[in-house]
Amino acid sequence: MKFLHEYRQRPGIERIAREIVRITTRHWTIMEVCGGQTHAIVKYGLQQFLPSQIRLVHGPGCPVCVTPLDIIDQAIAIAARPDVIFCTFGDMLRVPGSEGDLLGVRARGGDVRMVYSPLHALDIARRNPNRKVVFFAVGFETTAPANAMAAFLAHEQGLNNFFLLVSQFLVPPAIAAISSAADTRIDGYLAAGHVCAVTGFESYQQLADTFRVPIVVTGFEPLDILQGILMCVRQLERDKYQVQNQYARAVEPAGNPHAQHMLQQVFEVSSQTWRGVGNIPASGLRLRAAYSVLNAAPLFDEKRSCPDDTRGCISGEIMLGKRTPPDCPHFGESCQPQHPLGAPMVSSEGACAAYYRYRAQVITSDATDRATHEH
Amino acid sequence: MNIDCPLPADIEDTIRLGHGSGGELSQNLFRNYIYPYIKNPWLDQAHDSALLTIKGSQLVFTTDSFVITPLFFPGGDIGELAVYGTVNDLAMSGARPMYLSCSLILEEGLPLNTLKRIMASMGRAAAQTGVHLVTGDTKVVERGKGDGLYINTAGIGVLEHEQEIGPGAIRAGDRILLSGDIGRHGMAVMASREGLSFDTSLHSDCAPLHEPVRDLLAAGIQVHCLRDLTRGGLATALVELANARGVSVEVQESAVPIDESVEGACELLGLDPLYVANEGRFVVFVPEEEEKAALDILRCHSVSAGSQRIGLVTATGRTGVILKNSLGCERLLDLLQGEQLPRIC
């Protein structure tokens, strides 16, 4: 398949890996920001192709994982109302709130529907004028334009039964927060290619300059990721800190202006709480005043239960690249996909889910690492 | 010990859709809520059908229910699915399918013309597979209490050979043959149900499998185990068999055929084709020396023309299914965890 198989071939990957080995002289820690990249790294055992000096750590780039607990609880409370049709992307259905998840609400009679697009939720609202249709608008810059489009159309068409429960995140402020932490040890970043396809990457140069870190806009296939690492290591070895674009086949420097325009028309920047990480200024989006009538949160003034998400959940440390899933005492024991203790074990982009699902590779990679190191 | 994340309330206090996925939740349901109350040696056979010996005759008995939405999907409909599904369950025990029952649960408001089309489809499927629909039942439920129509079937077949076919007969060294590309049924139904459109049209693989099985047995091929791939897909079927027999299995990912349209749709939605449902595919476990002859026979049938070896049983005593990918990495396959959920981005 074009743009897929050619990026999964061993010869090309080995060629890039040899070049990384050739140029690496020191220890470097590189964070892949996106959970999709984490899954590819673990699935294909990419660490085994890297020299032992290169350490990959996982970033906060999983929208399911970073959605705060109180928003999940609010979603669950809203979804349980008999007058509501609650629409959500599939990933969110199994995320545990304080008292269960959205699938549990559905099992107990709530009208919870999985949709593939916010426009589908809009269509459900049109066809159910006597019900309130709430769409769970979660995600990064990748989902925000389509969510904005749904809000724009609902507003324009005068639909009075369509609402958004918004939990949108912006990636660059998270990179800034990680880089500015006193104990940070991230030497370089692989930025999420699909986020940059929307936003472009011109604004990333300020981050690179401020924190003196290379940032490489990177795709999601094995060859993409190794190329991104190579570009990052080249800069690190030369003491450079620039923004480079590995994912040129999908990302323009200025991004997608149409998507940005739609996003800016409906949303404005706000502070945002990241589950497990905490509040990051200007790292979220909220509906502008002109669209506030679509905001589901005040309309459904449900009890916000148990916002206390600070009892040492190590998912925060995992998402900040400070620890890896096997460091958690619950990993693979009391915490498994069937009985998740936290969102990173639920989400298809969660680091814990990746390590659990591909644990044979992780073991193989670790063993290879050790063998290489000992050798 | 300090549990760091807030624990969700007991998530298994009610039935969830995932209990019907054929994966881990389904296994929990059987293990904890069903088998303890009806345990017997026939259920212990852990096969798609029960082998019954009645006055010297070896009969195979199975049942299945069909609850698909939409009733008509690209490449098939619920009527032929009900016949083929039950025929396939019998065939996977190495039996010749003979008689079926048909129980219809009809929802108030179902157009009679729809029922007529589905029954005509069942009739054609029965004639095609040589089975007879010999008994049945109808019930009508109130509007809103059924998706138009549910079908339950039971099937009886007869064993006409001496082979033991089932998980218990799997041996180390067995070759695993797959009858064709995977995932088309699940993706075709999902695309149809959700109104998803892709560049290429997806059609279900829904088909009867009794003829290639019949010819394998007629040729005297030693068939150690057969399993049709339904809910939970190829991965779940292999994990179930490995667990049932206590063997380890190795599968080459590059040898598993996946149609480009299925692969593209799965990539887009973040689904793993190894776990996507099929309705016309099966795996065969045969000794190494039978591989070539078995493949020659399978490839003579259109339904299994794409057969190839995808892996082998590596050892007994260690349980697990390892998938080796093109980069030489190994991945441990699990049962499907709940439902496969499309990703956000």
UniProtKB/TrEMBL annotation, chain A:
InterPro entries: Hyd_form_HypD, HypD_1, HypD_2_sf. It comes from the Bacteria. Belongs to the HypD family. The keyword Phosphoprotein does not apply. This is Hydrogenase maturation factor. It comes from Microbulbifer bruguierae. PANTHER family: HYDROGENASE MATURATION FACTOR HYPD (PTHR30149:SF0), HYDROGENASE PROTEIN ASSEMBLY PROTEIN HYPD (PTHR30149). The keyword Membrane does not apply. Pfam families: HypD. Keywords: Iron, Metal-binding.
UniProtKB/TrEMBL annotation, chain B:
It holds the Pfam family AIRS. InterPro entries: HypE (IPR011854), PurM-like_C_dom (IPR010918), PurM-like_C_sf (IPR036676), PurM-like_N (IPR016188), PurM-like_N_sf (IPR036921). Residues 47-158 form the PurM-like N-terminal domain. Residues 171-323 form the PurM-like C-terminal domain. Gene3D superfamilies: PurM-like C-terminal domain, PurM-like, N-terminal domain. Belongs to the HypE family. This is Hydrogenase expression/formation protein HypE. It comes from Microbulbifer bruguierae.
